[in-house]
Design a protein that fits this description.
The protein is of the alpha/beta class. The chain has 5 helices and 6 strands. 34% of the residues lie in helices and 20% in strands. Belongs to the LpoB family.
């Protein structure tokens, strides 16, 4: 039985084999591609220059304002002050971190307040779920952050633009009540 099965399978296998005739490949005629007509490129004579970033001397702008604030009525020396980051309410781009650093430096020079360190502010912002680049600029957020840090005062600052002129507005607020103890304005050149 095994032999019969083996013979049948062998016959089927041999029947399925087909001899292939060798065919010559079809002739290939090379064709050159047609060149596309591209419209002529107009070349401008000059490449426009991007606008240059204007360098702002924040120290000269905020120093007189900080001096005024230090002499304001109702300000107690030696109290803890939170310098909130400067808010940009202009249509342009400003380096607000440099402005915030200039304000902090000017306050340190005056030696009227104990400024909350940046690292402590950053840690508190993370704990409260606030972004360090939060651009909403709400005074209530600033006061809430100051309360969390046990600060006595908060300095809120924003740069705004009116008729092409940029100004920085600063407000010193008492954290307990939200009362504005001092406000000042300076031109941003």
């Amino acid at each position: 039985m095994k032999r019969i099965l083996f013979v049948i399978l062998s016959a089927m296998l041999l029947a399925s084999c087909v001899t292939l005739e060798t065919q010559q490949p079809a002739p290939v005629t090379p064709v050159e591609p047609k060149k596309k007509q591209e419209p002529p490129v107009e070349r401008s004579e000059k490449v426009p220059q991007p606008p240059k970033l204007q360098s702002i001397n924040w120290n000269n702008i905020v120093q007189p304002l900080v001096e005024q604030m230090a002499k304001a009525n109702g300000v107690d020396a030696g109290k803890v002050l939170l310098v909130d980051s400067v808010k940009n309410n202009t249509n342009g781009s400003l380096r607000t971190l440099k402005a915030t650093d200039a304000i902090t430096d000017a306050i340190s020079i005056e030696q009227v307040f104990q400024v909350v360190p940046k690292s402590q502010v950053h840690t508190a912002q993370q704990a409260l779920g606030l972004s360090s680049e939060d651009s909403l600029g709400l005074r209530s957020k600033s006061i809430g952050l100051a309360r969390y840090l046990n600060a006595d005062y908060v300095l809120y600052s924003e740069v705004s633009s009116h008729n092409g002129q940029r100004d920085i507005d600063m407000q010193l607020m008492l954290v307990k009540t939200g009362e504005i103890l001092w406000s000042g304005r300076g031109d941003v050149n």
